[in-house]
Each structure stands twice: as C-alpha cells, then as structure tokens.
Write a structure and sequence with these properties.
Elements lengths: L2 H14 L8 E2 L1 H8 L3 H13 L3 E3 L5 E3 L4 H25 L3 H18 L6 H21 L3 H10 L18 H23 L2 H10 L2 H29 L1
Antiparallel strand pairs: 1-3, 2-3
Helix pairs in contact: 1-3, 1-6, 2-3, 4-6, 4-7, 4-8, 4-9, 4-10, 5-6, 5-8, 8-9
Protein name: GntR family transcriptional regulator
InterPro entries: GntR_C (IPR011711), TF_FadR/GntR_C (IPR008920), Tscrpt_reg_HTH_GntR (IPR000524), WH-like_DNA-bd_sf (IPR036388), WH_DNA-bd_sf (IPR036390)
Pfam families: FCD, GntR
C-alpha cells in the first residue's frame, strides 16, 4: 500500500475527528511533520480531500477545513444511495461480463485480506479503501449510463459522499471494525445479486449499503462535538 494512500487515510481521519477547526488552514509542511511524511503525499491527499468536499481552497491558494452541516452530509449520502442503486440494477439487467466478474472478485478478495488484519492498521484500512473504491467504480462504469455517472461525480464533491468516505474512520474501535465487516458482506451479497441478474435485489442492496455511511457520519460528528467540548476546557487549563 502506497504512502500516499496511507497519508490520505490519516489526514481524513484527523479532519473527521475534529482535530482541525472549520476554516483552519492546513499547512503542508506542518502536516508532513505530523504524519511523518514528505510534502508530496500530503499535497496529493489534500487534492483528494478537496474532491471529497472535506477541504476547500482559500483565496491564497491554500487549503482550509470546510464547514458542513449534518443535513448536507445526510442528503449527499442519500442521493449516492439512489444513484448507485440505479447503477447496480442496470448492471444486473445488462448482465455481468466475464471481465467484470473477475475484476469484482479481485476487489472482494483484496477486501477479505485487508479485513483479516487484527487490529486494523492505517495500512490495512488504506488497502481496503482502495479495493472499496474500485468495486464501486467498476459497478458505476459498467452501468453504461453517462448521465448517472456524471451525477455521481458531482455528488462526490460533497462531504462523506464518495465511496471510501463512507467507511468508518476510527479503525481502532471494535464497533467500527464490525461495521466495516458488515459493509464488506454487503459487497459480497451485491456481487451475488449482480451475477444472478437480480436487478431489484441489487438496487436494494446498493441503496441499503449507504446506511454504513450514515452511521459513519453520525459517529464522526459526535466525536467531533466531543473534541470541540474538550478543547476549550484544555485551553482554559493551559491558560491558568
């Protein structure tokens, strides 16, 4: 697993846990020192996080943490669920080619291997996230509906909407680990429905899959709120 992918996982995790305040500038050099990496993978991670809607470019060309509401996130996730449900139904109805079946199997196998790690590390998490991204991208590409594909691309610019942003971030927690296993089992069930040509079942599974994202969003915002409550108290203690 590349350093760039690991840095992306770590930086996304920090943002979602509320380590940075909304509007706070993210300096490449400081982030690189904090994560033990060079500025190159940090810069690439920030570009990806901008695409995911977690950071935005300010007037000086630097990156700052984007402020977002729970409702904005929930709406974006719900839209993705409907779009990916439609894509899955189309793939099932069109039929799964031998090439697509092989590519999806490879994603599932890589996911199985990544989740076998105990405890989950950033490296194993990054490996799973890569397989997860490819699985979703393969289904979307195979649906053949360009309007739907463009709609997903547009929706991905909102926080938590992209495929990997739907995954639990704090992998040290047992509850998060269980949710990741549950999400991966859904991938296996969706693969089975696609192969069998079960359009309605595939659509339902793809839509239901986004509940993991809704859970992740709720947990991340709860942890963010806890951090925001603790930090002012710490500042008061330090200032005495």
């Amino acid at each position: 697993m590349s350093l760039q992918e690991t840095v992306l996982m770590q930086l996304r995790d920090l943002i979602l846990r509320g380590e940075f305040e909304p509007g706070q500038r993210l300096a490449e050099q400081q982030l690189a020192e904090r994560l033990g990496a060079s500025r190159t993978p940090v810069r690439a991670a920030l570009v990806t996080l901008e695409q995911e809607g977690l950071v935005q470019v300010n007037e000086t060309g630097g990156y700052v943490v984007r402020q977002f509401t729970a409702q904005e996130v929930a709406d974006a996730i719900a839209v993705r669920g409907h779009l990916e449900g439609m894509a899955a139904r189309l793939v099932a109805e069109h039929g799964v080619s031998r090439q697509l079946e092989g590519a999806l199997r490879a994603c599932l196998q890589e996911g199985d291997e990544a989740l076998a790690a105990n405890p989950l590390t950033y490296e194993s998490y990054a490996k799973y996230a890569g397989a997860n991204d490819r699985f979703h991208a393969l289904v979307l590409e195979a649906c053949g509906n360009r309007a739907l594909q463009r709609a997903v691309t547009l929706n991905d610019k909102l926080p938590f909407a992209p495929a990997s942003a739907m995954l639990p971030m704090q992998s040290a927690l047992e509850q998060d680990r269980e949710w990741m296993h549950y999400a991966h089992r859904q991938h296996h069930m969706l693969f089975d429905a696609l192969k069998r040509g079960e359009g309605a079942r595939a659509q339902s599974l793809a839509n239901e899959h986004t509940e993991v994202a809704q859970m992740n969003m709720r947990m991340a915002l709860e942890r963010r709120a806890e951090t925001e409550q603790v930090m002012p108290a710490l500042r008061l203690v330090v200032g005495r």
